């Protein structure tokens, strides 16, 4: 069963002036929601608030019908998984060992792991196509393989909600697409609810069911990509002119910047 989480009237800050006010968002169960916006717009802070790693100054977050603040830490870790932007790679750790770390919320203090843990680890390895690399250490993986290993660790928690903060950062285009295809498959084939912070607007539109566009501390557009990603939205959020076209077969929008500056004569 997919999981539901929503936020209402959030004010988010870092001890001073709030970076976002009046934020409301609901993640559709079993779908991928992309959070996009310029630097400093509050998208990563919002994601961390949904993971209870950042306490809102005001507002409420509800997870499966309960206030997020009511969950005990271990209980919450069984509900959601959060993957930070640049996780530190442990030295000498194999893929399988890393994935096994995801079972800690389900184990007692002295537990060594049982059949249920083994099944969860095997499922996470298979879901991310990492079975052939299970015994390889992380320092011997490509960037895309290493990111898949971190996602597999999050999946081993057996949560139904996955929060990813810029999982494609520092990856070349091949591995970016590889990771995003995995995210898409997790939602489509396993019913996992995913929220992902992305910078690339076209990737966000192509791989998500919904987009939330933040700018200036507020949500300027949200909904299916064809409605959220428009020329007006991009101009408002990023202060650039673009041409947005819709694929006639898929309805997915593609955003291209207007590269040329106006000529002096045209400007005059």
UniProtKB/TrEMBL annotation:
<dbReference type="InterPro" id="IPR003439">
    <property type="entry name" value="ABC_transporter-like_ATP-bd"/>
</dbReference>
<keyword id="KW-0408">Iron</keyword>
<keyword id="KW-0547">Nucleotide-binding</keyword>
<dbReference type="Pfam" id="PF00005">
    <property type="entry name" value="ABC_tran"/>
</dbReference>
<keyword id="KW-1003">Cell membrane</keyword>
<keyword id="KW-0067">ATP-binding</keyword>
<keyword id="KW-0410">Iron transport</keyword>
<dbReference type="GO" id="GO:0016887">
    <property type="term" value="F:ATP hydrolysis activity"/>
</dbReference>
<feature type="domain" description="ABC transporter">
    <location>
        <begin position="5"/>
        <end position="241"/>
    </location>
</feature>
<keyword id="KW-0406">Ion transport</keyword>
<dbReference type="InterPro" id="IPR003593">
    <property type="entry name" value="AAA+_ATPase"/>
</dbReference>
<dbReference type="InterPro" id="IPR027417">
    <property type="entry name" value="P-loop_NTPase"/>
</dbReference>
<dbReference type="GO" id="GO:0006826">
    <property type="term" value="P:iron ion transport"/>
</dbReference>
<dbReference type="InterPro" id="IPR051535">
    <property type="entry name" value="Siderophore_ABC-ATPase"/>
</dbReference>
<protein>
    <submittedName>
        <fullName>Iron-dicitrate ABC transporter ATP-binding protein</fullName>
    </submittedName>
</protein>
<dbReference type="GO" id="GO:0005524">
    <property type="term" value="F:ATP binding"/>
</dbReference>
<dbReference type="InterPro" id="IPR017871">
    <property type="entry name" value="ABC_transporter-like_CS"/>
</dbReference>
<dbReference type="GO" id="GO:0005886">
    <property type="term" value="C:plasma membrane"/>
</dbReference>
<keyword id="KW-0813">Transport</keyword>
<keyword id="KW-0472">Membrane</keyword>
């Amino acid at each position: 069963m997919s999981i539901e989480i929503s936020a209402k009237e959030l004010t988010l800050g870092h001890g001073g002036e709030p970076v976002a006010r009046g934020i409301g968002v609901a993640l559709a169960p079993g779908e991928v929601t992309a959070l996009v916006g310029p630097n400093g717009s509050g998208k990563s802070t919002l994601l961390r608030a949904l993971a209870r790693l950042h306490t809102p100054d005001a507002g409420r977050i509800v997870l499966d019908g309960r206030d997020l603040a009511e969950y005990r830490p271990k209980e919450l870790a069984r509900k959601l998984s959060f993957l930070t932007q640049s996780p530190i790679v442990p030295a000498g750790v194999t893929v399988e060992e890393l994935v096994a770390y995801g079972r800690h919320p389900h184990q007692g203090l002295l537990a060594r792991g049982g059949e249920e843990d083994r099944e969860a680890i095997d499922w996470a390895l298979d879901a991310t196509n990492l079975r052939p690399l299970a015994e390889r250490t992380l320092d011997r993986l490509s960037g895309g393989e290493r990111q898949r290993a971190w996602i597999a660790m999050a999946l081993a928690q057996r949560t139904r909600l996955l929060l990813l903060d810029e999982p494609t950062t520092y990856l070349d285009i091949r591995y970016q697409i590889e990771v995003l295809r995995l995210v898409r498959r997790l939602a489509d084939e396993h019913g996992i609810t995913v929220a992902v912070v992305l910078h690339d607007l076209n990737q966000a539109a192509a791989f998500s069911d919904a987009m939330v566009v933040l700018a200036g501390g507020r949500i300027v557009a949200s909904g299916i990509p064809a409605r959220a990603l428009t020329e007006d939205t991009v101009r408002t959020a990023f202060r650039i002119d673009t041409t947005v076209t819709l694929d006639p077969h898929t309805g997915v929008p593609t955003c291209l910047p207007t590269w040329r500056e106006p000529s002096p004569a045209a400007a005059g």
